[in-house]
């Protein structure tokens, strides 16, 4: 009796979830692993007593050219379309989910087998199949016919540099780079001082803030006046090793001065993204290693969630075609 081919996907961000969904639709048995507690990767959101914050991707920037119909279906769930400046400074048509950005990622997990709090530390190929080892358990997991990595290039390199067969893939990964970004969640302590304001301010880049998001002013937004501040790549690089407390207060003071409100907080918290947005992409939709190992992610095509989704779809199509040929 012939068994369905199996695929292990490392990373439950946009690329990994899209690849898993498409590969499973084409008859592959997929298992997704992620070191985090839930899906989404940089599509991160945080709920609070004042309302939700989107401290990862604040919205989903779309490419100007026509996109894959499968991608359009994935993004057609409760989102408003606005013309917004993304973190790189480019004005694009953008989707702003009615719920949190992460809620969209949670919908993409439906029907998938996902294992969270699984940190991959090693992988090996025995000549026929792939086996994976995670820090949370001693035994190897497998066998898998194919493996798709969707983690940031430095994390993939740390795993693949131990495998001589993946030398060429490692060379390509070394040329791909992400810029860091600090993001700050801020509830001003004097909400009466906050005027109506706009959903997005993008005129603070020279001061160190690429995007200033007024979360309660999103389409269908609710809750107290609150901001998510996304620092520029230059500011984040210069202050990368600051403590979260220092970074949060520095960015709050920059924003408060521009907004003309007191630099005081009822709630203030910062998150450091070491691999926030792509500064040097591979220029290919996905990468192919040896022995049925693939790599996908926004670092292949560009800096947006849509780029990551496109990469995941392309990798899924390629590995499904390869498995069909070997069946």
Automatic annotation (TrEMBL):
Organism name: Paraperlucidibaca baekdonensis
Protein name listed in UniProt: Amine oxidase domain-containing protein
GO molecular function: oxidoreductase activity
Pfam family name, one: NAD_binding_8
Sections of the chain in a coiled coil: none
Organism phylogeny: Bacteria, Pseudomonadati, Pseudomonadota, Gammaproteobacteria, Moraxellales
Family matches, as Gene3D superfamilies: 3.90.660.10, FAD/NAD(P)-binding domain
Chain ranges of the Amine oxidase domain: 73-319
InterPro entries: Amino_oxidase, FAD/NAD-bd_sf
Transmembrane segments: none
């Amino acid at each position: 009796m012939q068994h369905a081919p199996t695929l292990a996907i490392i990373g439950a961000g946009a690329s990994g979830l899209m690849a898993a969904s498409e590969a499973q639709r084409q008859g592959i048995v997929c298992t997704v692993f992620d070191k985090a507690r839930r899906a989404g990767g940089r599509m991160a959101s945080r709920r609070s007593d004042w309302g939700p914050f989107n401290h990862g991707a604040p919205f989903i920037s779309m490419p100007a050219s026509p996109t894959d119909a499968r991608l359009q279906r994935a993004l057609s769930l409760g989102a408003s379309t606005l013309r917004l400046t993304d973190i790189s400074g480019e004005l694009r048509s953008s989707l702003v989910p009615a719920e949190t950005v992460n809620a969209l990622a949670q919908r993409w997990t439906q029907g998938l087998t996902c294992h969270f709090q699984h940190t991959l530390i090693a992988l090996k190929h025995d000549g026929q199949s792939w086996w994976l080892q995670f820090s949370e358990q001693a035994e190897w997991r497998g066998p898998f016919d194919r493996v798709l990595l969707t983690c940031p290039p430095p994390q993939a390199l740390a795993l693949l540099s131990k495998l001589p067969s993946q030398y060429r893939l490692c060379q390509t990964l070394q040329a791909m780079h992400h810029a860091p970004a600090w993001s700050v969640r801020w509830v001003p302590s004097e909400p009466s001082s906050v005027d109506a304001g706009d959903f997005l301010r993008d005129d603070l880049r020279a001061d160190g803030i690429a995007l200033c998001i007024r979360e309660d002013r999103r389409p269908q937004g609710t809750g107290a006046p609150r901001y998510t501040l996304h620092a520029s790549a230059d500011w984040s690089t210069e202050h990368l090793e600051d403590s979260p407390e220092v970074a949060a207060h520095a960015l709050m003071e920059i924003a408060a001065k521009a907004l003309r409100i007191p630099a005081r907080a009822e709630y203030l918290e910062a998150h450091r993204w070491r691999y926030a947005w792509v500064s040097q992409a591979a220029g290919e939709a996905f990468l192919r290693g040896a022995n049925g190992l693939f790599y996908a992610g926004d670092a292949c095509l560009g800096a947006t969630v849509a780029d990551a989704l496109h990469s995941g779809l392309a990798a899924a199509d390629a590995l499904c075609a390869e498995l069909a040929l070997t069946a």
